[in-house]
Write a structure and sequence with these properties.
This protein is mainly α and 65 residues long. It contains three helices and no strands. Helices cover 68% and strands 0% of the residues. The longest helix has 18 residues. It is elongated, with a radius of gyration of 15 Å.
Length: 65
């Protein structure tokens, strides 16, 4: 993800949702290939990102100089 794309997703408050979607697509692809070694981990990460999308927002921290 480029810095401009990252900035856009953060401004639109959908960064967690975007990561959630990408991880779930990877999980589904691995499942189709019968590779399930990290299936539970990817599912947990997806669920955590769904929670964060619904309850948190990323904000820029001011530079302390």
């Amino acid at each position: 993800m480029s810095k401009d794309s990252l900035k856009f997703h953060i401004q639109e408050n959908d960064y967690f949702g975007t990561l959630d979607t990408l991880l779930d697509l990877i999980r589904q692809d691995l499942d189709r290939q019968k590779y399930r070694r990290h299936f539970a981990t990817l599912a947990r990460l997806r669920d955590n990102l769904v929670y964060l999308q619904c309850s948190h927002r990323i904000e820029e921290i001011a530079q302390l100089l």
